[in-house]
């Protein structure tokens, strides 16, 4: 989903229409505070991927301050932020990119270039979500299961794994089954694809 935070209604409407024209669901907010209230009421971010279009200059809380707030809460690791501004300058753009923004566009912007970049950001968000899910699955493995996983990925057979770890082949089979189940795959090949 595309989240648009801009204090100008005409910009929000225009960006929502552009998103609609590309079949991208969008939600818009008239201020940073309105967005934060929505975030606190119910996390609006979609595990299938999100992007935040954020106006730099807004009354009360600026887009850069909102970005910093979201970064402190860990959201900017999984939700790419594209800054929009009518008052941009090169140092501001460089600073926002150094702090982790996905991109920076000056108003007026090229509609197609912006929406192309939004689609790239959504793809990056989906990939980050997929990676985070794999990381959570890996974290759920016991130390022994992790050792078995590493040896499976090296292409070792159960008997060899048992010899290396000094455990019975039956125990390896149990650990192997647990690894595959926890990682949500059926075969060692699927496991290797997941972790490549």
UniProtKB/TrEMBL annotation:
Cleavable signal peptide: none
Keyword Methyltransferase annotated: no
All copies of domain HTH luxR-type, residue ranges: 134-196
The entry's keywords: DNA-binding, Phosphoprotein, Transcription, Transcription regulation
GO MF terms held by the record: DNA binding
GO biological process: phosphorelay signal transduction system; regulation of DNA-templated transcription
Annotated Response regulatory domain residues: 1-122
Domain of life: Bacteria
InterPro entries: CheY-like_superfamily, Sig_transdc_resp-reg_C-effctor, Sig_transdc_resp-reg_receiver, Tscrpt_reg_LuxR_C, WH-like_DNA-bd_sf
Residues carrying 4-aspartylphosphate: 55
Protein name stated in the entry: Two-component system response regulator DctR
Taxonomic source organism: Castellaniella defragrans (Alcaligenes defragrans)
